[in-house]
Every structure is written in structure tokens, then in C-alpha cells.
Specification:
globular, Hypothetical Protein Tm1070, Chain: A, 2 helices, mainly beta, four-stranded antiparallel β-sheet, about 10% helix, single chain
Length: about 200
């Protein structure tokens, strides 16, 4: 990652654990605002050492979505092959009332967590390295605050878009248990909700 400040570039070490990441989304489901995008690639870390006749190992990106009240909304596990690209729409696939377990339509901002998984089971994952991801963030120049509960605020135009790498983070045992158990409950009790959707690899939504 390179950070630009006052025209000067500072190199930063992106880390090398590459199996647990966090980021945020903002101004989702906001009138006039562009859609945010989560993009994840697989660098082939689990690739076979054979040079011929053996396919590289695939991987899954387990995605967990929370709102800005720290309430869990949905989870899913999306397939990525080596050198493949996964592109997820925030509004259409990760944050809306059809996939969110709470059924809320007014979710505007929150947190997204991503775990590299060998087997594609977000409720009982086995971590695997090799994912790299980027997130576009929709920034507003001003906000409007509602006068009725829950007193949420939404961005106002003009909007602009920034993009940053996902933050390579530490995955503790407590965090692992919390993600797995919350996802499992959402899938079990969500009556079809609580599960985000995955774009076909190398396609936009």
C-alpha cells in the first residue's frame, strides 16, 4: 500500500497473514450515492508445488456483514480460484433488506469482515492464506440526521469514492467463535435471510 500525503508517497507493509481482514462501508442504500464494491483476489498461496498436470487449490472468501450498531446482518462464502477476481456489490449483495437477518432497509454504514477459508463453510471455517482485497468507500460532503428513532444519519450529495486495501487483522479464538456462531444462528433462524449472495467469479454484479 502507498499512502499519499501532500504529494509525498509513504510505503507501508501490507502484512503477510492474509486470511482475516476488516473494512467498512458507508452511504449504502442512500439516494443519489454510488454503490460500494468489495473486490477480492486470490494470490495462489495454496497452489500445488507440481509444475504440470496439477490444478492449483481453490479458496473461499467468507464474508460477514455488520451494521453500525454492531448488529450482525448476514454472511456468505464465495468461491475464488487462483488469480480469480470476486466482485461484490454492497447495495445489491451485502447490505439490503432481502439478505439482512434483521430485515432492515435503512442500513447505511457498518463493518465487513472477510476470512480466507479452505472449505466454504462460514459457520465452521478452516482458515487459509492467500486472499487480498480492496474496498471502495462512498464519501459524502455533508449528512442529514433523522429526527425520529433510531436517529440515523445519511450522507448528502455530492458524493465521491475512495478505495483502500482491506485491513490485514488479527483473528483471535474469541473472534473466530463469535463469527462462526453468529453466522450459524443467522443461517438457521433467518428463514432465508441472513445469507448474502455471491457474484460469479470474474463477473461484475
Amino acid at each position: 500500500m502507498t499512502l499519499m500525503l501532500g504529494g509525498t508517497a509513504f510505503a507501508q507493509d501490507p502484512g503477510d497473514s492474509s486470511y482475516y481482514f476488516v473494512t467498512y462501508y458507508s452511504n449504502a442504500n442512500t439516494s443519489g450515492a454510488p454503490d460500494g464494491t468489495l473486490r477480492i483476489v486470490y494470490d495462489g498461496d495454496l497452489a500445488t508445488t507440481e509444475t504440470e498436470g496439477k490444478p492449483n487449490s481453490d479458496i473461499f472468501a467468507d464474508i460477514y456483514v455488520f451494521d453500525d450498531s454492531e448488529e450482525f446482518q448476514d454472511c456468505c462464502s464465495c468461491f475464488i480460484s487462483p488469480d480469480g477476481l470476486l466482485s461484490e456489490s454492497v447495495n445489491k449483495e451485502l447490505v439490503n433488506d432481502t439478505v439482512s437477518v434483521t430485515g432492515r432497509a435503512e442500513i447505511n454504514r457498518g463493518v465487513i469482515k472477510v476470512v480466507g477459508d479452505r472449505y466454504g463453510e462460514p459457520e465452521d471455517f478452516s482458515v487459509a492464506p492467500g486472499l487480498r482485497g480492496f474496498m471502495t468507500h462512498v464519501q459524502a460532503t455533508s449528512t442529514t440526521v433523522s429526527t425520529t428513532p433510531p436517529f440515523s444519519s445519511t450522507g448528502k450529495a455530492p458524493f465521491y469514492v475512495t478505495e483502500t486495501p482491506l485491513a490485514d487483522s488479527n483473528l483471535s479464538t474469541a473472534e473466530t467463535d463469535a463469527l462462526e456462531e453468529t453466522c450459524s444462528l443467522a443461517i438457521t433462524l433467518g428463514s432465508g435471510a441472513g445469507i448474502c449472495t455471491c457474484t460469479f467469479e470474474d463477473h461484475d454484479f
